[in-house]
Inverse folding.
């Protein structure tokens, strides 16, 4: 439960308002910011209004089954939602990624850890394992490591080896950052990591920085930097290179077209993330929900489809699964919950979304995840897509 000095919160919007009122402006703008005009960020949110949910009645929904697995032979998770990787979480809460890990593992779901975390990947996994045992769950926690193929490939290999040793379950390779999106809030705020924090997965000697660096001779001056993460030389052959150095599953994060989804299948990806980086990369890219169904139809079940982008309600998760996602992920909502009350805030936000999702399933007449599909939805007046 939240401490008595904090207001009671009942929705993800409540968590957002709390974080907006309490986080420092530079931190709030960093977590909530988007590329340029924020067109894609807003579209991610509004795209859920393109679909109504068809209510069905007199169907036995006394035992709605929402449990699933993020890995074929892995732990069951309470419902199809995991927490996406997000950088520098100690800016949101003093215990940062450790509190996030405890919140996720205590709830029973998967945590994605950013390589640019303010806590080492080893410490995060240890906290997750401890919280899972304390909650009475059997087996180790499930964490995945988000990373980039750095220009210095050995830097990536070193991270992978550490993740393997500690028991991470997959590598989430971000593939939509050949260049960084131009995020005006970060530029205007001259964003930088607060001086008391550090990038815990990299030695200081590596020179990994975050923040804004003014470049007078660069058209993209003052762009936020995490040096060497933006690697414009990557190709599909880079996936093969990565698979040669690890047996961990490789999930590709940033797939937005059927063509790229098919290439992911052809090049041996183990899963894809339909994601536009929360609107932080290419502004005017489509919202993730609008491309999900055509990607699912192209993939034809040959690999799992993970999904993120604007999830704020249990009904958003329901719609994403109906359109072809296997599991949805939240990013900003988990950060807002962390800012509100650390690990307890994260667990409470997940419980709220679970309750909303379960109610949505029951009121649509669906007692199991296998019953979800496009037939559960209909187009609203907002869209010209016609019948599903």
């Amino acid at each position: 439960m939240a401490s008595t000095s904090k207001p009671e919160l009942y929705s993800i919007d409540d968590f957002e308002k709390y974080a907006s009122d309490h986080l420092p402006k530079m931190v709030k703008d960093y977590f909530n910011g988007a590329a340029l005009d924020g067109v894609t960020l807003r579209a991610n949110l509004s795209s859920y209004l393109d679909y109504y949910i068809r209510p069905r009645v007199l169907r036995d929904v006394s035992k709605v089954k929402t449990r699933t697995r993020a890995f074929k032979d892995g732990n069951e998770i309470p419902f199809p939602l995991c927490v996406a990787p997000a950088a520098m979480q100690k800016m949101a809460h003093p215990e940062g990624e450790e509190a996030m890990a405890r919140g996720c593992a205590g709830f029973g779901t998967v945590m994605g850890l950013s390589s640019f975390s303010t806590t080492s990947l080893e410490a995060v996994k240890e906290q997750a394992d401890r919280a899972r045992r304390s909650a009475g769950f059997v087996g180790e926690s499930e964490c995945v490591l988000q990373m980039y193929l750095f220009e210095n490939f050995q830097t990536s290999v070193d991270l992978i080896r550490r993740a393997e040793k500690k028991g991470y379950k997959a590598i989430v390779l971000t593939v939509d950052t050949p260049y960084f999106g131009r995020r005006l809030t970060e530029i205007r705020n001259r964003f930088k990591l607060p001086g008391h924090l550090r990038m815990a997965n990299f030695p200081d000697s590596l020179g990994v920085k975050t923040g804004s660096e003014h470049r007078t001779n660069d058209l993209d001056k003052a762009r936020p930097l995490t040096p060497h993460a933006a690697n414009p030389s990557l190709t599909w052959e880079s996936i093969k290179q990565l698979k040669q150095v690890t047996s961990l599953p490789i999930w590709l994060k940033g797939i937005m077209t059927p063509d790229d989804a098919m290439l992911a299948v052809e090049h041996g990806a183990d899963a894809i993330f339909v994601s536009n980086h929360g609107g932080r990369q290419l502004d005017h890219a489509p919202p993730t929900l609008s491309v999900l169904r055509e990607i699912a139809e192209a993939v034809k079940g040959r690999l799992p489809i993970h999904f993120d982008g604007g999830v704020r309600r249990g009904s958003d998760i329901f719609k994403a699964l109906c359109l072809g996602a296997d599991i949805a992920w939240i990013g900003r909502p988990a950060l807002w919950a962390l800012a509100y009350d650390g690990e307890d805030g994260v667990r409470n936000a997940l419980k709220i979304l679970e309750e909303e999702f379960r109610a949505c399933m029951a009121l649509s007449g669906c007692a199991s995840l296998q019953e979800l599909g496009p037939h559960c939805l209909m187009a609203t007046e907002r869209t010209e897509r016609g019948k599903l």
